[in-house]
Write a structure and sequence with these properties.
This protein is α/β, with parallel strands linked by helices. It has 12 helices and 10 strands. The longest helix is centred in the middle third of the chain and has 18 residues.
Length: about 260
Amino acid sequence: MKNRLARIFNSETGRTVMLAVDHGYFQGPTTGLERIDINILPLVPYADTLMLTRGILRSIVPPSTTKPIVLRVSGGTSILSELSNEEIAVDIEESIRLNVCAMAVQVFIGGKYERQSIINMTKMVDIGNRYGIPTLAVTAVGTDMARDARYFRLATRICAELGAHYIKSYYIEDGFETVTASCPVPIVMAGGKKLPELDALTMAYNAIQQGASGVDMGRNIFQSESPVSMLQAVRAVVHNNETPKKALDLYNTLKNQESA
């Protein structure tokens, strides 16, 4: 368990840059993920961790890839139905067979199927503990819940109390430091919707400075004009405490070199 977590979180900084490309499990081929073999594989060397589904891992990611894998194990619904109505969709033997470093389960605090999603997570915690595989709880905002510090303190603390080894949660401008302070396990910031590069870098910087143990970005990376440059700029923020402005300068420099 400790070895797997040590592969996810950089040993020098204690932080991680996760590249999330698991969106297809309920969204299908979203923009930027139509061709993972062409658009995403070139990004893998610059990420600390790759978060994806077993279908993509088996069919596209080369077995020679040594980056730690966080495997999406919950599912069962699409964007056409009630998203919180998930169950465990991957057997623990599959996670062991695929040699993953963590298993990701969506938890819908305040959602219609809140209880079911929480039990999904606790079941994976129990099963994962038997085999030394950590569980990542991915918080999702209920449709009737305000996206504020009070909600995220509730959601992250519930996940931690019930055994999640680390948690993926959204950044909020007002009170995010109270969310990280009241959660006893690491919080990795979710990137969310596509933002302008400076805004995304600023959000990542603020989250790190306010106690996050890393960022998990997808659309803000693979939908960027230069995904490789953006991923390296995010790394500078997370691992080197680079300011957003300097990270943006790095992004623009790398982007210009790429197009030269």
